[in-house]
Amino acid sequence: PGRLVESGGGSVEAGGSLRLSCNATGYTFRTYCLGWFRQTPAGRMGVAAIDPDHTTNYADFVKGRFTISKDDAQNTLFLQMNGLKPEDTTMYYCAAAYIYHPGSPACRLPSPVWSGPDWGQGTQVTVAS
Predict the structure, then answer these.
(1) Per-residue confidence (pLDDT) for residue 8, from 0 to 100
(2) Helices and strands per DSSP (H, E), number in the chain
């Protein structure tokens, strides 16, 4: 397994923006599903995911406010968060899931591919009312 290190979290007012980054070490993005998850009382819930060909998908609650992207050459994953709400306050985690079957990446949320991903340590997002 490689290492995933998040950054970019912080405190903003409602309606503000943050850009989270995830620097990956020891991963080849062409063979991994990548995603962002957020902490809830029930565990970590998927927020956004991106597959090797840059196809993206999002959790319903995002409402078009967040954008996931990646830089394959730099092994970096991003989450642009706009229109932040107090309900978005929590820890956000970068995740990487190896694609065992090249013919079907299945990086969408939810998907069995996310049953046991590698995790970063998380970065905190706090949105004031």
Answers:
(1) 98
(2) 0, 11
